[in-house]
Amino acid sequence: MTLAGTVATGPDLLRLVAVPVFAWTAYRDIETRRVSSTVWIPLALLGAVLLLWDARLAWVAGGTAWSYDFLVPTAISLGLVVPIAYLFWWVGGFGGADAKALLVLAVLFPTFPEYALGPVTLPLEPTRIGAFSFTILTNAVLVAVALPVVLAIRNAAAGRIAPVMLVGWPVPWERIPETHGRLLETPTGLSRGGLDLDALRMYLRWRGLSLAQLREAPERYRDPATLPDEPNPPTDGAVTADADLRGDGGALEGAETETAVTAATDPQGAPTVDDPWGAEAFLDDIEGSAYGTTPETLREGLAVLCENETVWISPGTPFLVPIFAGLVIALVYGDLLLGTLL
């Protein structure tokens, strides 16, 4: 609550530190899909200190300032937003960074801040639900819901009409190694369950190959006999991951491969081999799922990427972007949902 003659309370002014931090984390999440957990620790500590500061100010003010303006929204923020963040992370609806961001916001913004700018007080539309972190969350959800509509309009304007136009767009294969998201294509057509591009990068680094090399000789590298004797560390699939790769591209680089081929062919007409592309060997070697990738999903994705010049991908916009947008909207306007309904 703003005191008479002041721009804002000390705690509310310090809370604005979160804006550039969340802008940076949203940018990092778009560029790398990786946000260090250490970024949230200072904000969480700041939030705890400001919460105690607010409690003291509300206690001194007494009356409804303590009970209605502080205790009720704080209880909603910590008792509702925190469990929601944990639940959605637990069921896979949020990534770890998204959940941590919401946990930090629950501590940092339990009550509605007020900023007096001359005759104007921001947020413009405070609501009866005083938990500001809940307002940020609902704003973020509305922004996230609007993104597919924007994507569909963009695709329609470019003449790209397809069943997946709400969730993706086509990109040339050359951009795939530096692109985040998931393939929306399989050899049999469009699909929502295609190969995760982080898993693709893990596989290519494991083999010491580039996507361009794979496309130059797909039949060669489809043969598991070309798997390297000493694979590279796959890293975590991040675009920016450092990796000192052995670029041999397989144990039989530069020589004819001895392939155990049967007379049968697969649906694409290629000779049938045991474990095409070495997909199963890769997943067994890394002792993990590579973001839920199965051998079949990896094989289908590689087949598409070796054949198509342009592929549909889902960018999978990280939820930190809507969270940041929801924070900015909340600070300037207030609650998009309840502010327009109440």
Keywords:
13 helices; disordered N terminus; 9 strands; 2 domains; 342 residues; mainly alpha; Preflagellin_Peptidase; transmembrane helix; Four Helix Bundle (Hemerythrin (Met), subunit A)
Q: What proportion of the residues is helical, as a percent range?
A: 40-55%
Biggest sheet: strand arrangement: 3-9-4
Q: What gap, in angstroms, lies between the N and C termini? A: 21 Å
Say what oligomer this is. single chain
Briefly, what is this?
This protein is mostly helical and 342 residues long.
In words, what does this structure look like?
- The protein is mainly alpha-helical and 342 residues long.
- It has 2 domains: 10-148 and 319-341, Four Helix Bundle (Hemerythrin (Met), subunit A) (Up-down Bundle), CATH 1.20.120; 168-314, no CATH class.
- The protein has helices spanning 10-15, 18-32, 40-61, 64-90, 96-108, 132-157, 197-207, 211-216, 218-222, 279-286, 295-307, 320-332, 336-341; strands spanning 115-117, 120-122, 169-172, 182-183, 185-186, 189-190, 261-265, 271-273, 310-314.
- The longest helix has 27 residues, at 64-90.
Helix/strand layout:
Blueprint: H1 10-15, H2 18-32, H3 40-61, H4 64-90, H5 96-108, E1 115-117, E2 120-122, H6 132-157, E3 169-172, E4 182-183, E5 185-186, E6 189-190, H7 197-207, H8 211-216, H9 218-222, E7 261-265, E8 271-273, H10 279-286, H11 295-307, E9 310-314, H12 320-332, H13 336-341
Antiparallel strand pairs: 1-2, 3-9, 4-9, 5-6, 7-8
